[in-house]
Amino acid sequence: MRIIPAIDIIEGKCVRLSKGDYSTQKIYNENPLEVAKAFEQAGIEYVHLVDLDGAKSKQIINYNILETIASKTNLQIDFGGGIKSDEDIKIAFNSGANQITGGSIAVNNPILFKEWLATYGPDKIILGADANKGKIAINGWLKESNQDIIPFIKNYQKEGISYVISTDISKDGMLAGPSFDLYESILNETESSLKLIASGGISTFQELPKLAALGCEGVIIGKAIYEQRISLKELENFIIKK
Q1: What pLDDT, on the 0 to 100 scale, is given for residue 47?
Q2: Quick one: which of 89, 144, 138 has its CA closest to 113?
């Protein structure tokens, strides 16, 4: 199971939110590159970079942060937040993203999202399936759609999607443990080719082997690292033991 720390950006700074609520933002570092380099030094190879300004805007905003981290580290970056047009996705890839995550666009403009999947391929496009009470949430989690999470994922599997990031919004940033039941349901009810990346609520190192045992392909960890609930040394040892 891949370890994927999260770097969430507002106004160029590394922040974390609780349950996606922008009013709860806490700044952890004003230099996201410093954070990324610390991850790399711990043997981590991947990072989940989210443009929170872009997520509630009409376009990508913090692509300069993406470009800086991509050019000054060897981290493989999946980038999301504000990718709503062909121009946005080109900017993201040209700025150094290895993969992009599309959530709102997959709900609001499925035709365009499917075009991206066909153009760039399933290794480059991640489906963002973030849910609140089982319903897909969009626009920086500020709105709830009428789509249920498992049929939503299954429909995109038919289109060739393989990578899915799923966040239970009620758990995100709360340090109360991830939604094991949700991930088990997703993995049991979708095609076995699904590469599910768990996200939201990770609070202790002991939760990681449980997610791996469920069959999660990766796990995104945010606040647990920043609040020092999980140390980079623990993650480094986990990666080495793999």
Answers
A1: 98
A2: 89
Could you tell me which residue, 154 or 146, shows the higher pLDDT? 154
| Residues 6+ away with beta carbon under 8 Å from 229 | 175, 203, 204, 223
pLDDT value, residue 104: 84
Q: Who wins on pLDDT, 132 or 196?
A: 196
Q: What pLDDT score does 145 carry?
A: 67
Which helix (DSSP H) or strand (DSSP E) does residue 220 occupy?
A: strand 218-221
HSE, side-chain direction, 13 A CA sphere, residue 91:
19
Dihedral sign, Cα of residue 147, residue 47, residue 90, residue 57: positive
How much is the pLDDT for 132? 82
Catalytic residue annotation: 8, 130
Q: How many CA atoms lie within 13 A of 148 on its CB side?
A: 7
Q: Tokens 């922040």 label which residue?
A: 15
The structure tokens listed for 53 are: 């300004």
pLDDT band per the 50, 70, 90 thresholds, residue 144: low
Q: Of 193, 191, 192, 210, give the one whose Cα is nearest residue 202.
A: 210
| Tokens coding 239 | 């990666």
| Dihedral sign (CA 69, 72, 78, 83) | positive
